[in-house]
Amino acid sequence: MVALSIINVLIAMGVALFGFTLQTSVAGVNRKIIGRMQKRYGPKWYQEFRDIFKALSKRGITHGWVFDFGVMMALGGILATAMFMPVANIIAFEGYDNFFIFVYLFAVGMLGMAMSASGSGNPLASIGVMRALSQMVGYEVPFMVVILALVSAYNTSSISGLVAIQQDLGWNIIRLPIGALVAFICLQGMLGKKPFDTFIAPAEIASGPMVEYGGKQLGMLFIMHEVSVFVEVSLFVNIFLGGGNNVIEFIAKYFVVYTLANLIANTLGRFKIDQVITFYYKVPIMLALLQAGLIIFLGWGVN
Amino acid sequence: MTITMIVVGLMALSLVTYVVSKMSKGLGSVLTILGPLVALLFFLLEGSGIASGSSIGILQFGATKLGWFFSVTMLIVYGCVAFFNPYWMKKLVHPSAYNMLYILSLAGTIGMFFAVDFIVLFIFLEIAVFASMFIIPFGKSRNAAVVYFAMSTFGSFAFLYAIFMMYGKFGSFDISFVLGQLATEPTTAIWVIILMGIAAFVKLGIFPFHIWLPMAHGNAPDTFSPILSGGLVKIGAFIAIMVVAIAPTYEVLKNSYEVMGLPILIYIVLIIAAISMVVGTLMAIKQDDAKKLIAYSSVANAGYIIVGIALNDQLSLSGAMMHIFAHAIASAAAFLSIGAVSYRTGTTKISELGGMIQKMPITYTVYLISIISMAGIPPMAGFISKWLLFQSLASHGLMFIGAAAFFGSVGSFLYVFRPLSGLFLGQLKPQHNHVKEAPIFMVVPMVILSGISLFFGVLPNGLLNFIGKIQVELGVEGITTVDTAIMGNNGLLDPTLVFINFGLGFVKAFIIFMSLSKSRKVGLMDTYTAAEFVYDPNVYHYAKSYYAPIERLYEKHPDIVALYKGLVQRVVDLGRLLQFIFFKTKPGTTALFIVLTIILVLWGEKIW
Amino acid sequence: MIQIAGLILILIGLYGLITKRNIIKMIIALNVLEIGLNLFIVSVGYVQDGIAPILTEVNNSSGLIFVDPLPQALVLTAIVIGMGTTALSLAFARKIYATHQTFDLNEMGVEE
Amino acid sequence: MSQPILLIAIPLGLAFLSIILKKIKVPLLVLGLLFSSMLVFFIEKKSYIIGGFKPPFGINLVVDDYNLYFIIIVNVLFLVLVLANLSAVKPMATVLLVASAGLNGLLLTGDLFNLFVFIEIASIAAFILLTMDKQFLKVFHYIIIGTLASSLYLLGIVILYAQYGTLNMADMSGLIDGGSITPTIAYLLIFAGLAVEVKLLPFNGWVKGVLETASAFTGPLIGSLYAGVMLVVFGRVFGGVLNLSGTMVTSLTIIGVITLLAGEFMAFQSKHLRQVWLNSSIAQSGLAVILFLQGLHHVAVLVIVANIISKFVLYLVSGKIAAVIGHDKIADLKGIFMNKKALGIAFTITSLSLIGLPLFFGFFVKINILIALFQSSNMWIPALVLIAALIESAYVIRLLVTMWQVGEEGEKPETIEKPTFSLKVGFVTCAISIILGLMLLVSGVYPDLVINQSVKAGNVLSVNDEIQVFTMEGGLE
C-alpha cells in the first residue's frame, strides 16, 4: 500500500469532486451553447446542479434492495475511478493510474447501474441496458486497440506516464491523428451522444435504463453520470491532448473536447443499435488496427 | 501424509463411497464432501513441500509446486461443489455410481498433477476423463457424454502418440528427462509440441475442439457442471503449461520463422486462442440456457489461459495461472448458483425464470460476485489475471490478439449480464412464488467460493508470490510484488488500493443515499408502462432473445457442430458402404474378393 | 501335365463358385475345385518312373525309386474331408430349399 | 505326466460314445470337457510324438509357452460356455465334443497338414453348431467360403511341401530360414486360407450373417473361442513358420490395417448389439494380424487373450439380452441394465477393457502395442491403431451410455420413470460375466503375470531379447 495515505486519499476525493463540479458546469454551459445554436436562450449554466439537487431532495420510489444497492455501487465505482484520474499535475496515486483500471473499475459502476435498472422490473430498462452493453462492445474494442498500441510503444500504461511523454514529444492528436479520430468516435459512443444515444432514446424506450428512477436515486445517477463523463473526457484529454500543465489548460482542453462532442451530437440523428455495432466494426476498428499497425510495425509517430 | 497416500486413499475412498452409498445414499454423499476436504486439509497443512511418498509399482509421484497449485485449486472446487451432492441424491438415476465416480475423477486429476512418468500421467488423466464421462449422462443428455468422451479421447490419443514419439526417441517415460531431451531432436520435438498442444486444446475446450463444453457442461447434472468447468477443463491448462513451460518449446522453435518476435507456431496458437475468445463470447451471448452460457464463457476464458501460457513470460504465465485459479473458482460459483436455482425451480433456461433475487438473494449475490470475477472487473480475482495478461499483450504489441482479448473481455460483460438480468432480476414468475432460498448447506460453499474470489481480488499477493515461485520452478522469471502492489511491465497495480478506493466511493454513495429521505417501496409491477395496464408478470419480463439485435448480426454464422456431425456422418456412410460391399449374402462375391485380393497382392511380387 | 490339369480344374471350380448362383451348382463347383486340388497334390508327389510306395516281396530293394507316399496320404484325407463337407452342404441345400422353395440365391431375395 | 493327445482323443472318443449312448450324452459332454479342463493344468511343455514316427516324418503335438495358456483358456471357457447354456446344448452334445477336439488339435498340432485336418474338423463342427440359429443360408455361405479357404490353404502347403519336402512346422521353419527362395504364391494361399478364418476384410463375407444372429451359445463359441484359436494358429503359421519379408509384409499389413479400420467403421454405424461386436472382432483380428506380421508376437498374444475374454462376455451377454428381449437393436435397449446392475457392471468392465481404459486389462494391451510398434520405429501404424481405438471408444461408450441410461435427449433424469421390466438372465451367466470381468479388472491393476507370460509366448515364435513391455510392477523391462 505504497500510495495510500490520508493526503493521497484527500487529493483523490478532491479530484473526484473537482471532476463532478467541472463536468456539471461544462454540461450546463453546453446546454446554453446548444440552446443558442438552436435559437433558444437555453438554461442557466448551473441548471445541471439545480436538477441534481432537486432530484436528490425529492422522495422517490424504490423497487427493492438491488435497485438501491445498484445505484450505490454505480456511484461508488465511478467515484473510485475518478479518484485515479490525473488532472493536470495533480495525481492522487502516482504510478497507479493504470489505463486498465479506468476501463475495468469504470465497468463496476456501469454494472451497478445496469443491475439497478434491470432490478426495477421494467422491461424498457432492461432493453436500455441491453443496448448500452451492446454499444459497449462496439466502442471499447477500437478504443482499447489504439491504447494498446500506445502502451506498447511508450511502454507505460499509466495515464500520467502517457501525459509526461506527450510533454516531451508533443500531443498524440497531432502525431497520431488516426488514433485520435478513432478515440474521439469511441468517446462519442461512451458519452452516449448522438448518433450513439440509442440506449437512452427517450422517445423510443422512455430513457431506457433511467425509466424507473426518481428522487434521490435519480439524483445519484445524475452525479454518477457527470463523474463518468468527466472520466471519459479526461481520458481523451490526457491521452491525446497531453493533459495540461496546469488546471486551467486542462479545463480548456476539456471544455473543447466536450463541446465538440456535443455539437456533433446535435447535428446528427440516431443510429439503431445494430447500426451502431456494425458502424464500429467497419470504420473505427479498421482505423484503429491501421493506427496500431503503423505504431507497432513502423514506429510512425511515436519516436 | 504423502501424495501417494492421498491419491491411493482417494481411489480406495471411491470404492468405499460406492459401498456406503449402496447402504445409505446420504452417508455416501457426505463422504464425497469429506474426501476432498480432508485431502485439501492435508495439502494445506503440508504445504507445497508435501512429501511425495514411496512408489507403488509404477505409481510414483513427485511433489511440484505446480502440481500443488493445481491440486489445491481442484480440491477447493471439488470440496465446495460436493456440498450440493446430498441434495441431488434423489434426483440422480444412479446415486451410488455418481458418488463413486465423483471421488474417482478427483483421484484421477490429483494423481495426474503429480505424476513423474508420462504413462502414470496418462493413466490418471484417462481415469479422470472416464469417471467424469459416466457422470454426464446422469444429467439431461446422453449424446453429450459420447461427444465429450470422443473429443477427450481424441486429445488423449494425440497426447499418447506424443508420449510414444518421445519414447521412441529417448527410450523413457520420465517426464522431466524426456522433455529435457527434446531440444536435441527438433523434428520430433515440433510434432510432440503440436500433438500435446492439441491434447491441451481439447481438454481446455479451445476452438475448434470446444463443442463438447456446452454439450457436457450444459447437460451434466447441476452438481457436476461446476466440476467440469471449474476443475476438469483445467487439466488442459496443466498440459499446456507442461508443453510450453516445462518442455523447451521456445528453444526448439528458436530457429523457426518469427512473427512479431514470436515463433510462428506460438503465434498460430495465439491466433487459435483469439478465435476461441471471440467464438466463445459470441456463442455465449446468444445462449438462453444459463449453463450453456457459462460453458461457452469457459471457452472464451480458456483462450485467455492459452494466450498467457503460450507467451510464457513473467507476466503472462503468472496471469494465466492466476486466471486458472480465478476462473476455476468463479465459474464453479456461477454454476453452483445456477444449480441452486435449478434445484429450487427445476430449470436453467433464462427465459423461463426471472426475479429470482426476491426469493434467493444470497444465491444472487454469489452469482454477482462470480460474474464480476469472470468478466475481470475489480475487485475480484479475475481482474488481476486479466490485468497481467493485458500487460503482457501490450508489451508484446500483439494488437490482433489484443483486439480479440478486448472483445472477449467486453463481450463477457454482455453474456454474464444476461442471466443476471433475465434470471435473477426482473419480474418474478407467479409459479415461482413459493420458491425459497437454497438450503443452508448449499449456500455455505457458494459463499466460501465468493469469499475466495473477493479475497484474492483484494489481496492477491500471497497467491502471486507463490505463483512466482512456481514460475521460478518452471524456469521463468517470477512475478514481482511490492507490498500490495503488483509490478507490471508498464505499470503498477495495487488491488488493495483499488478496493479501498471503491470502498470509499461506495461509502460516500451510501452516506449520500442514507442521508436523503427514505424512498417508498413499490412492487415490481408498479412501473412505467406508457399508460398500458399490464397485469401478467410473464409478459412483462425482458428475457427472451435478450441480445436479439446483436444475435441478428451473426445469426448466419458457420456452425462448427455441423462440421463434426458431417464428419461422423462420413464415418457412418463409409461403414455402411463397406458393410454393403463386403457382407453380401452371396458366397460367390466373397470368393471373388478372395481371388481378386490374391491377384492384387501377387501383382508385382515374384511368384516363386 | 497332370499338375496343369489340376490347376485348370481348380480355376474352373473357382469360376463356378464366383459365377453360379445356384446352390447345387456351387457345391458342384466346390467339388470340381477339390478334385483339381487332389490331382495337383498327387502330381506333386509323383516321381518319374517311380513305383507305388508299397513294400512287397517283389519290391524290397532300397535301390528302387518310389513315388512320394505322403501326398497320397494327404489326398486320401482330403477326399474324406471333402466328402464330409459335400454331404453337409447338401444337407444344408435341402434345408434351404425347404425354407425358400428354390436353389437359386437370386430368387431368395435380399435379406435386410 | 499327461499326454496332450488326450485333449483330442478323449473328446473324440466320447463323441463316438455319445452317439451310442444317446441318453447320457450331455453328462458325457460335461465329463469330457471337465476332464480336458483339468488335464490342461498338468501338461508339460514339450514336443509329443504321435504314432511312433519321429518328426518331421510323423505327426507331433507341441506344447510350449505360446499355446499353453491358450489351451487352458479355451478349454476352461469352453466348459464354462457349455455350463452356461446347459439347456441349449442337448442336441449338439456330440458335435460339441468334436468341436472341442478340433480346437485343441488346432492349438496343439505341430504339423501343417494336420492343421488342415483340424481346421476342417473344427469348421464342420462349427457349421453344424450354427444350425442352432436356424440361419441355413448364412451358414451355407460360411460352408462354401470355409471350404474354399481350407482348399486354398491345402494348395499352399502342398506347394511348400513340393518345395521343402516337409510339413512339420519346426522343420519347415528351419528350412525356410536357411533357404533363399520365397514361394510367394504358397504364402499367399496359406494367408488367404487362414484369413477367411480370422476374418480379415475381403475374406470375411461369412462373418456378418453368422454372428449377427448368434445366440448366447454360438456367439461366444464362434466369436470368441474360434476366433481366438484361429488367430493363435495364424500367429503360429505366420509368426513361427513362414518367414515373410519385403513387400509381402507390407501388402499383408495393409490388408490388416484395412481390416482394422474398416471393422471399426462398420462397428461405428452398426445399430445392433451383436453386429457391433462382430465388427469389433473383425477389427481386433486385423490388429492381431498386423502385430504378427510386424513380428511383434508378444503383443499380438496379449491382444488375442484380451479379445477372447472380452468378446466371450460381450457375446454371451448380448446373446442373452437378444434372447430375453427378442431383438438386439441398441436404440431399444435403453436403461436395460438398470434393473440388472451386476450383469451391467460386468458388461461395462469388459467393454471398457476392450477400448483400453486404465484400471482395465485392455489399457496395458494398448500401451504395450504402442511400445512395441514404436520400438520397431513404426509411425503410421500406431497412428492408425489409435484412430481405430478412437472410433471404437466412441461407439462403445455410446452403447454403454444407452444401456445404462433412460430418457430421451434433453430430458431431465428426475422426470424420467425408471423401467420396471427386469432382464431375466440366469444366475450362471451373471456369475460367469462377473468373474471374467473381475479377471480383467484384476489383471488391469496387476497385469504383470499375463504380460510376462505373453513375452515368453512371443519368444517361442521368434526370439527377441530387446522386447520392452510395460507392467505395473517394474515399469519397463
Describe the structure.
The complex is a heterotetramer of chains A (303), B (608), C (112) and D (477). Chain A has helices at 6-37, 47-57, 65-84, 99-119, 123-154, 159-169, 172-175, 177-191, 202-205, 215-240, 247-265, 273-280, 283-298; one strand at residues 61-62. Chain A has 303 residues and is an all-alpha fold. Chain A has one domain (6-298). Chain A is globular. With 608 residues, chain B is mostly helical. Among the domains of chain B are: 315-550, no CATH class; 566-602. Helices cover 69% and strands 2% of the residues of chain B. Chain B contains 25 helices and six strands. Chain B has helices at residues 3-23, 25-46, 65-82, 85-88, 95-114, 118-135, 143-170, 175-181, 186-204, 212-219, 225-232, 234-246, 249-252, 264-285, 290-311, 314-345, 361-374, 381-396, 399-424, 440-458, 461-473, 495-515, 548-553, 560-582, 587-602; strands at 258-259, 262-263, 481-482, 485-487, 492-493, 520-521. In chain B, helix 3 packs antiparallel against helix 20 (440-458), helix 10 crosses helix 11 and helix 17 (361-374) packs parallel to helix 20 (440-458). Chain B is globular, with a radius of gyration of 26 Å. The longest helix of chain C is centred in the C-terminal third of the chain and has 32 residues, at 69-100. Chain C is 65% helix and 0% strand. The model of chain C has no long low-confidence stretch (mean pLDDT 81). With 112 residues, chain C is an all-alpha fold. With 477 residues, chain D is mainly α. Chain D has helices at 5-20, 25-39, 65-84, 93-108, 112-130, 136-164, 169-178, 184-198, 205-211, 218-241, 247-269, 273-293, 297-325, 341-354, 361-375, 380-404, 427-445, 448-461, and strands at residues 47-50, 59-62, 470-471, 475-476. In chain D, a hairpin with an 8-residue loop joins strand 1 (47-50) and strand 2 (59-62). The mean pLDDT of chain D is 83.
